[in-house]
Fold this protein.
Amino acid sequence: MTTQRGALFQEKVSRLLSRQNGRPVIKPNKPLVLKDSVAYRKLKKKEATCITEISVMMACWKQNNFVDGRCSNEIKSFYTCIENAQADMKNAKAETRNHGVRLPPKQATTLLKRYPNLHYEI
Amino acid sequence: MSASFSGLLKPWTPRVFLVRWSRYNPYYLEPEVRKEAYSIPETELSAEEKEQRELKALRPIKAATSSITSSLFDDPDISKFINMMMKHGNKILAREIMTETLEDIKRKQVEKYHKAPTGKKENIECNPNTIFHRALENCKPVVGLASVKKGGRFYQVPIPLSDNRRRFLAMKWLITECRENKHRRTHMYEKLSQELLAASIDEGNVVKKKYELHKMAESNRAYAHYRWW
């Protein structure tokens, strides 16, 4: 199946370059060779965690004139929230390593670099 | 006469060899120095701790640094504070300053204790280590500010800090405060003991600095959404 796909792709490229059907669609200035790396996908921006805890704590601070002794409950809940958020982040990182069917771009690049395109004859 | 010269004729070998260096193979585990960790009976260990014990039996362990001991008086916070006070590797001087500080705190507290009426004697804390820890706790900030770029402008965003970062900030503030805001004739240990005693009762410049940071964070609370971690 992959050899079939490869052959179809080569035919498509030759059609795009040929002058027989009017003007060629592509005029490549560099040779049509694949790079040894894959483009890096930007991470989706996550949201800020524990915002409610922060706002509750700051409201408490404003009421009690920033004395920490009065707000000890809110501060403790803030710390627990942070610990939970950090544990969640660690678990999420371990999960995204599987990445479903596709390889993550960094791993794909390392793999390609180990078996690079040959650009010499020997 | 020949005995004194023969010592000089031998090739020189250093008396102290460096065993512990910082770049160990990550395979090595950290040593457990505290005696209490080994006196826990088998039954009271949780499953993770049992796994850790078994792992320690198989893996190589790093050499302990020369600054930690298994004695009662070894305190990781105080060791870290001494290291932060140290200049040009002069650990002896830094340790002397710390011991003088603790002694000074003890003297002041014992004086207060003897002068206090019998009703209030129990409230006075004489142990300088507990005063140090209390002062450190009172100096630690809860949230910090980070510079986040959004739409071409930099905003000061309130962020949660890790425990290590908070401890570091508290110690750094204490040391800079004692180095800069003192009369040129006062010794470091005097100024440090004054600051520590003030911080343990929530007074003094370091605690004031912490409150200013909290106020800045509170005034910038609207930008808390600019954080993405």
Observations:
- Chain A touches chain B at residues 45-51, 54-55, 57-58, 61-62, 66-69, 75, 78, 82, 89 (CB under 8 Å).
- The longest helix of chain A spans residues 72-96.
